[in-house]
């Protein structure tokens, strides 16, 4: 299997330097974010859509380094109750799908989003437990009035452009575990699938290889991203603790370099599960460990993947 990297983990690098570094570590594939000021550090999204010469230049630079763009990522909240914010993210998603189609990139990654609790809502309302009657009513309203109507349109747009969408199973979004992903996929169709990032499944206590086997062909993309539970904080707050990422020492879980939260034996089982279901895209490294430099973490992750993934 091929190894990929989420290019935006090296934000601040010059593009050619980043490509050279990744090639040196036997990385073959890229996921490129479109949600910042620049795409691939040096290009603007609207310019890439309008100018075929810029698209060709980007592809030539990537290919000259021996790499391939296999996904574009535009993570945000297309269901935000603030209509302006929702529209901006929906437009970004639309443009990202259009760019993927122009460049022959098969997958766009995104969050499913999180609506408010009513027409008058100002802020998202993530319902993860039905302890009170109101929660069930809110969840039903969200899916019938916001989630399904938007993703029916967005899914059709993707299908028209021959691009699939991989939704990250992400707490805070209405799609955060295998069952919510399949609920949306069953309603919209196979153009919608999962981005399986184990880091956010670990702290939900989800059996990650089991989840992969359960999702089967609904797995559209895989991120190689580790996390670690911090047991001293679990005793105090559990896993649901709204501590900012910058205050990671106070969080009950933290992103780790691949292999530093879960050892090689876990990752062997995980990679075996994605091979078992017929997944053929790349294993994409996402690095966010506060204890390791991004480049160092990517190098360590790539070495681990080389040691355990099938060579074909």
TrEMBL record:
Entry keyword annotation includes Repeat: no
Recorded hits in InterPro entries, A to Z, give:
IolE/XylAMocC-like (IPR050312), Xyl_isomerase-like_sf (IPR036237), Xyl_isomerase-like_TIM-brl (IPR013022)
A GO term, aspect molecular function: isomerase activity
Domain (Xylose isomerase-like TIM barrel) spans 50-307
Q: Name one Pfam family in it.
A: AP_endonuc_2
Has the keyword Magnesium been applied to this entry?
A: no
Name the UniProt key words of this record, in alphabetical order: Isomerase
- What SUPFAM superfamilies does the entry give? Xylose isomerase-like (SSF51658)
Protein name in the entry: Sugar phosphate isomerase/epimerase
Taxonomic source organism: Kribbella antiqua
Higher taxonomy: Bacteria, Bacillati, Actinomycetota, Actinomycetes, Propionibacteriales
